[in-house]
Design goal:
The chain is mostly helical. It is built from 8 helices and no strands. Helix content is about 65%, strand content about 0%.
């Protein structure tokens, strides 16, 4: 890789700080979308949801900063070359996740549906935790893991083949799929499964579209795809 294209130490440090601030603000944003509709602060599973987000952010920093801190700078940088369809999908996913929180909160307040038992909430938390862990493992195994789909020619983009990429081609999307479904169960609302299901479906669509882009635009990805057969779910697809 051309050393002139490598980010400076100061820009990397600035990027890490900006990434940390963004992660914190996103977690803070969850609070009104959860507790205002619920009309109460006494919602342990909602606090657990925020706690899992904190753990993921801390885990990401612990894994990524020692290995390639420039990745965090890249994730908050200008999105030149990003695919328009990918930005649209991510935007809709965010709306669906916020809708899931709002609907679950309203369900807590107005008791629209029969609440799920505590053991189901706990099982959902375990699934969400597994999803967050898989996401951190994936980002820690891929020096080119950015927020939006794009080929990073300026960074010498190569195919990630280590860690969970040995088993599926898009482990981070599998992780977020588990997080999304786990969140719906954690929050204990049957109606929340509607926007949660839409978000989960969009992760599957995003996987399919990104896979096509990588097959045609990223050198070496076709060989990797022949070796790692499954895109999202081992033994299934």
């Amino acid at each position: 890789m051309n050393e002139q294209l490598l980010p400076s130490k100061s820009s990397v440090t600035s990027g890490v700080v900006r990434w940390s601030v963004r992660e914190l603000l996103e977690l803070i944003t969850f609070i009104p979308f959860l507790f205002w509709p619920a009309g109460t602060w006494n919602w342990p599973m909602a606090w657990a949801l925020i706690g899992l987000g904190v753990l993921r952010a801390v885990g990401t920093a612990m894994v990524v900063v020692p290995r390639y801190p420039e990745l965090l700078a890249e994730r908050v940088g200008v999105r030149q070359g990003g695919k328009a369809w990918d930005m649209a999908i991510i935007g809709i996913i965010r709306v669906m996740l916020l809708a899931m929180m709002i609907i679950a909160g309203l369900d807590i307040r107005f008791a629209w549906t029969i609440k799920l038992p505590l053991w189901a909430n706990m099982a959902g938390m375990v699934v969400a935790l597994a999803g967050h862990s898989l996401f951190v493992w994936a980002i820690g195994s891929n020096a080119y893991f950015v927020r939006y789909v794009r080929i990073q020619g300026e960074r010498g983009h190569t195919v990630a083949t280590d860690g969970p990429y040995q088993y599926v081609r898009h482990p981070a999307y599998l992780g977020m799929l588990l997080v999304t479904l786990g969140m719906a169960v954690m929050l204990g609302s049957w109606v929340a499964f509607i926007p949660g299901g839409v978000a989960a479906s969009l992760y599957v669509i995003r996987t399919m579209l990104e896979d096509r882009v990588l097959l045609t635009e990223l050198v070496g990805y076709k060989t990797f795809a022949e070796r790692t057969r499954y895109r999202l779910i081992p033994g299934v697809w």
